Amino acid sequence: MRHEKATRLLDLARMLAGSAEGLTLDEMAQALDVGRRTAERMRDAVWAAFPQMEAIDDPPTKRFRIPSGLDGLFQTPTAEELAALRTAADSYKASGAESRAASLYALEAKLLSALRGSARRRVAPDVEALVQAETIAVHAGPRPFEDQALLAAIRTAIKGLSALSFRYEGGSTPGRTREVTPLGVLFGRSNYLVASEGKSGKPRSWRLDRMSDLKVLDKPAPPPEDFSLQAFADESFGIYHDEIQDVVLRIKKERAEDALRWRFHATQKVTPEPDGSVLVTFRAGGMRELSWHLFTWADAVEIIAPQALKDMMVQELREAGRAHGAW
User: Fold this and answer.
1) Radius of gyration of the chain measured on its C-alpha atoms
2) Contact at 8 Å (CB) between 226 and 244?
3) Distance of CA 52 to CAs 21, 58, 114, 119, 223, Å?
4) How far apart are CA 99 and CA 97, in angstroms?
5) Which of 128, 187, 201, 306 could be a cystine partner for 197, CB 3.0 to 4.6 Å?
6) pLDDT, tens digit, 9 for 90 and up, residues 235-276
7) 11: helix, coil or strand?
8) Predicted confidence (pLDDT) per residue in 50-89, tens digit
């Protein structure tokens, strides 16, 4: 029965899209062999799904049609989709990601300009209502450095499989000019170029805010065929890359529900224990950044392994204690 109703609604949509002058409610009812009230409900259902439907005054009644055929029908963005795009752009802007925010605002403008006037007028109030009613909480942390010209140069090099050179104010030799093969960009609390230096160089991360005098070189620099930016990112907790270790955490039963919904790492396995606690296991580097995160779990987390993470946590606790006069 539900399939039959859906088929009848699609039939009505085809009729409205195939009629140049449009259909009145009485004509819809006659074509579908239903009452006028049922035809009105079916028209409203089609209109809700495809907001570009037009109402044309034809006194003493109105005609309804879907302009541009069914191709445009299925490509028109909904208010929810446009609101999600705006919220994402606003979130980028609030966090300091001005370049990506500008790209999403430009995309929103292009989508709206592509809509017919009547469809745009219908969807705009719903978009504004949703944007006003939904927002993203901005968490404390560093504002990522995101220079549009620098990102554009990196993207040009990646698309053209070209080498990059830049002066880098970091690492063991600050101020040195580097020549690298660009592999990708990691966006996070700070933004990083992932690149390899030299023919046998391993991929490493370079902070964008420490780069200057960046140039796209007329020199081919294709990435290794087996390189995966996602796999590289998954090797670490956060950005820092060091020795990859097996991490085992036990979350007390008082926070078990939180742990079951939490994403510690892309490779994690979360296992409920008989005593109500939760065991979280994954492989990653970046023990210092992981220890910083575990502070937020207070005494609800117990580090089972590795010993290096335990030692790092104890060191961070001692330093925090000294800073606040605990000992």
Assistant:
1) 28
2) no
3) 15, 19, 12, 4, 45
4) 6
5) 201
6) 877 666 678 889 999 999 999 999 998 888 888 999 999 999
7) helix
8) 777 888 898 888 999 887 666 555 567 778 888 888 988 8
